[in-house]
Amino acid sequence: IKEDTETQLLRALSNTPLQVDCTFLMLSTHVSKNTSASHLNKFYVSFDSIKKKKFDGMIITGAPVENMEFEEVNYWEELSGIMEWTKTHVTSTIHICWGAQAGLYFHHGIEKRSLPRKLFGVYEHRVLKPSSPLFRGFDDVFCAPHSRYTEVWEKDIRAAPGLELLATSSEAGVYAVKTEDSSQFFIMGHPEYDPDTLAREYRRDIDKGLDIAVPAHYFPEDDPARVPVVRWRSAGQLLY
Q1: In this model, does residue 9 exceed pLDDT 80?
Q2: Which of 147, 121, 117 is CA-nearest to residue 222?
Q3: Is the Cβ–Cβ distance between 26 and 40 less than 8 Å?
Q4: Averaged over 229-236, what is the pLDDT?
Q5: Which of 101, 115, 169, 187 could form a disulfide with 125 if both were Cys (CB 3.0 to 4.6 A apart)?
Q6: Residue 11: per-residue pLDDT
Q7: How large a percentage of the chain has pLDDT more than 70?
Q8: Measured between alpha carbons, how far is 125 from 35 in angstroms, rounded to an integer?
């Protein structure tokens, strides 16, 4: 739901001493099923209304369309146009989860790969490049939530000219990638998630009758009746 994502991202961005002025962008070629038109019309603008402006940063978030080919997504053409526009109008763009896979595919031709089952839970990651400003203040090992059915392969990232692999997980795979000029960042997880986001996703999938495992490394002793322990908040705040 867009309102949840808005709140999570604004909360993360509000912890910087910089004053961040946010513009929410909606796609004109997509009708949202989970967010009211009145909310979108009140808080969101169209791409046409801002395309002549320059921005310091942009966040392209995920969407639950991983199992579709990129070109099958009904707003792919419009999103591609926006991603192309960021190259000349945005200083640095961060792509999250499906947004990261979409960005790597559009800008660098890297395919997403289907997983045998949903990657779902909180996983440990290792910083490969501690000198990167993105990971300033991070511990060598940090946690982040993931919730996705697809991934990108490390060998594809390493083979791509102009890309740097910044962090990986032995369980969750590639986590953070950037371009050498730091104009594009790709984050495979959800460092902005609230304490209960994975729990709500889990219960939603159970209610839908989906064959879903309990989120890994999230509930104490993997017991969904217990309150989750947050182990990713500090790393998420540092990243944003």
Answers
A1: yes
A2: 121
A3: yes
A4: 94
A5: 169
A6: 81
A7: 92
A8: 33
